[in-house]
Batch of 2 targets.
Target 1
Amino acid sequence: MQFQLILESNTPAIIGLNYQYPLSAAIYKIIQQSDEVYARFLHNAGYTSGFKSFKLFTFSNLNIPFEIKGDRMICTTNRATLLTCFHMPDAATHFIKGIFLHQQITIADSRSKAHFMIKEVQLLPTPKLDAIATLWFVPASPLVTGLKNNRGHYDYMSPLDQGYENSIRYNLVEKWNSIHPLSTEEKQQLFETIQIKTAYYATPPRHRLITIKENTPEETKIRGYEKFKIQIKSPAPIIEFAMNAGLGIYNAMGMGCIKPLE
């Protein structure tokens, strides 16, 4: 399920360009205040598949007009929107609305702090899909995928790279397997069933380098891509799952959030 949060601050905010990690922490904090068991489940393990763990939750870029000054976003209005996505039963709709409405989101780092109040929580409609559906999407946040190298780090891939679509497919199957365990043969069949295709605008996809846990010993830089189109052809539940859980990796850090192409 996908929700649009309407956020307001008392005055135009100043936040760091690398706001994804503190924003993720702020969302977890809200969940924790309302349901410690669910928050612990999300934070500690999520769903598991083999040696991987997934947190089936993601969110978009913070949508607010801003100007850049150094490594700061100087917001030019006090109203923002944020798309948040959860893979949860439909019955959890009221639970999600209830825990977010009128809560405060604080986005802070060592240099600035901004407070937003959640004024509205809007459940977005799920597209009507055929049993086997084809739908175009655009990234609502940087989409990150790649292959791990011998050092255990990711070599990030561009949508222009050979094998990019297969990497997205493989990760999507692994996430699905984390909640619907499949045999090796079934996973291969699902991989072959899902079709991923990318398309581009007049300019190449835009890359963004995002720093996670900035200015700490755990600081990590990840590279994601935006400003392109991605088509998914698959059974309808897989498409809905991709919308709710995100594509690629680092979804719980606000990467790989997608929305239908309008």
Note: Residues 101 and 118 are 6 Å apart (CA to CA).
Target 2
Amino acid sequence: TTAEAATFATGAGAVGLGVLSCGATPLTAGIAGATMAVYAGAYTPMKVRSPYNTHIGAVSGALPTAMGFAAALGTGLAASPWATHAAWLFAMQALWQMPHFYALAWIHRADYLRGGYTMFPLTDKTGLETVAMCKPYLVALCALPCAASAAGLASWMLPVGAAVPSALWWGLLRRFEDQPNIANCRRFFLGSLSYLLATLALFTAYARVEAEVEAETEAEAQTSREPAWRTAVAARLSELCPHEQMKAELFGLLSGSCPFG
């Protein structure tokens, strides 16, 4: 029954928040609570009332990206040099959800209509309106890696690497636009998943912070800014960087000279 479902959800949610608060940080539990509140209190009711429910759902879907930062940094997140990275991830995840769920809604529009849902793609008979709605979000997603590098959040290898999954996802959208059918829309939808995984992996590899922390040695400064595993991964990627190899071989410059590294 509805009452039993509500009781179970409340109990499970309370246990989960308690685990996050005790096992991670209270801020992590707070973000999780906000995610639940937005999803259950705003997004779910709006599904049958307004096609803008997807925009609200994007907020609840993006909030969990901040939970990892909150678990690692606690209340110091706002003052941490990683705060802007958390904001970047939130923005990327929120923008990504729009074309992802627009495609899903167009594929299953008959089921959505039977369920009483209201979403913009449900009135799109040809698929071209859905394509047009997705394009601005893909443009913004293509710009985000460049913005991250320009702001010093990541090396310039981020937009270089992100160009590949971005181009592949754009290609799937173009195919859907040229031949608007469920099969091509499903390919575009599945392409969104591979794009997200690739972008997250690239950001994990190339994200960085400026050396603003005073320490007696560079090793201590590096330890204070990021976990050891990220330092090891970055060092390995630097070894594989063709720019580093070329400069080392031709000019004998030290590692770290690559502007993309």
Note: The mean pLDDT is 88.
